[in-house]
Design a protein that fits this description.
With 327 residues, the protein is α/β, with parallel strands linked by helices. 38% of the residues lie in helices and 19% in strands. Helix 3 (97-108) runs parallel beside helix 4, helix 4 (139-156) crosses helix 5 (170-180) and helix 7 (227-239) packs across helix 8. Bound molecules: ligand PBG.
Length: 327
Amino acid sequence: MDMVKRPRRLRGNTALRKMVRETRMDKSSLIYPMFVVEGTGIRHEIPSMPGQYHYSLDMLPEALSEVADSGVSSILLFGIPDKKDEIGSSAWAEDGIVQKALRIGKKEVPELYYITDVCMCEYTSHGHCGALCGHDVDNDETLPLLARTALSHVEAGADMVAPSDMMDGRVAAIRTILDENGHKETPIMSYAVKYASAFYGPFREAADSAPSFGDRKTYQMDYHNAKEGIKEALLDVEEGADLVMVKPALSYMDVIRRVSETVHVPVAAYSVSGEYAMIKAAAAKGWINEEAIVCESAASIYRAGADVLITYYAKELAKFMEEGRIG
Ligand code: PBG
């Protein structure tokens, strides 16, 4: 055979394959989501998310130390309150669950970087992501509630806030209130391109945040659309978002690619609860090799253009990256 170009030449051994990898990733780009609940002595496994837990505040420091020891440096905190009402007022309460968790975390495990999810759905009695007007979320009435919640997180110690509600104008509202209160340096990571997705199913069970009627399609995006995702990402950057997120991840690789080629801020991808649950379930059946699938999925999300990966597999991935198995 008279062949000059032989792609297999670069696949000949491990050292060479690692040398020419096109996608590089590091554990510092991983964010681990965690759920905190009221009560004591609670470390309950979430049934549809094996290996993920609800932690009460007394159990939190140990769990946070475990995250830090695994090599993951950032967490994304979700609170599950014991009191809900129409407007979700425990979201911004001084002694709200996230606020208390932040004070404990920052004191006991200060080496972690604390990001909070800013949304109303865990806190409202109807499970929607804002204040209602009739049967729909009132966008403009919800903005001050979100802004207030973000400010209370930052005042309790949050290093970064991540609004996940998908109201129009919320990044600007949050930026304004943070700036007015002396938090000009606190970054915002917006869930900019967030789809109305069935992949959030296990999370809604975990966070007790399923809407009691209807769905989230009037505020979260239609999964047929990608250009609209660019519009959302650009708008959020204009309003002051420091990072933008695409969510879910695996079914939205094209969107991650397009957004990362368009915006000039870091792009985060959230590999959500349903993606995690599918891998766990198939692995429990012995149908797939869990570690191999986790590595391949993560690398492909970075390859699509993500700079940051939010994943329930963060602790395992930190190890795989450290070992050089991927990255
Ligand atoms: C809150 C929020 C949701 C998720 C993150 N923040 C649920 C939703 O929008 O219904 C989903 C995360 C996951 O599925 O892992 N709005």
